[in-house]
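Entry 14: structure prediction run for Peptide chain release factor 1. Input pasted below.
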Amino acid sequence: MIDSIQGLLDEHTDLQKQLADPAVHADQGKARKLGRRYAELNGIVEAYKRVNTLRDDIEAAREMAAEDEDFAAEVKELEAQLPVAEEKLRRLLIPRDPDDGRNVILEVKGGEGGDEASLFAADLLRMYMRYAESKGWKTEMISAQSTDVGGYKDAQVAIKTNSTDPAEGVWAHLKYEGGVHRVQRVPATESQGRIHTSAAGVLVFPEVDEPEEIEISQNDLKIDVYRSSGPGGQSVNTTDSAVRITHLPTGIVVAMQNEKSQIQNREAAMRVLRARLLAWQQEQIDAENAEKRHSQVRTMDRSERIRTYNFPENRIADHRTGYKSYNLDAVINGDLEAVIQSAIEMDEAARLEKLGQGK
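Run finished. Output tokens:
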């Protein structure tokens, strides 16, 4: 694999020339895509140079050690560094999910469990917001339907980064979070101290860079307007500013009511619709050819239970990767990196195995 990257090196050189052309930056969408690919290849180029430098240094050190034994220790040190550098390069050569560099729209929904489920949904949203803050990402609340107890029936947040490196992309980290998250704890309303189990759903969609990237015909849309409502169903707006958009070919429905203006709600709904359509298109490709699935860990089954948060034991367990730790208090406050890394590492291992099998 290491000896077959000349094509990638040539592509890196070509991208460097393209990005130096001011005309390319007139199309921000194209420039963004080229920049992501360049950042990805830049890591490969640097790792490749590191491997070649180590090989040259080892050869030179061996020649010197043959004349002076004092250089023997340097040979051993360099030889120990080489397999580490080669493994890093090998992992960088794993075909990357082309959406890894994208920002995301993340949605949490209260599931089974009533008020407790809505409170857990709020906990999950706060966990992701704090994790994003720790990564230096920006967050933007798109919509939220709160409950009387301070939880969320449904909330959507956009999470963004300024990095062009796909390995540091928001989707690269959060794409594994989609699914059912189960919580076991004593609800605040439980007078007997009994542990209840409830759940919340998480959906994660890569966000579309430019509206033109996803073609949507107005004839394919059914748009309804209605009056916004708050917790308990009471009206919070005297005008029909809430918007519900149904994409007829796919049946995808997006409703938005946070903004006071119907136009703003429509724009927000279209933004979410584009993200869902992008994910839907990829799911069709994945379903047709399982070998091309973006991720070996991320599932298309949004009803799959992926993780359990056990508060009495302060334990968090990921059912896909086998990750388990007893620092739930830290994780629920945004210290999510180790949990996410377990998914990334499992995915990389599966991809490496496929490469090794020549698939």
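Notes: The helical segments are 6-19, 28-67, 72-92, 115-134, 170-174, 262-288, 328-331, 337-356. Will compare against the previous run tomorrow.
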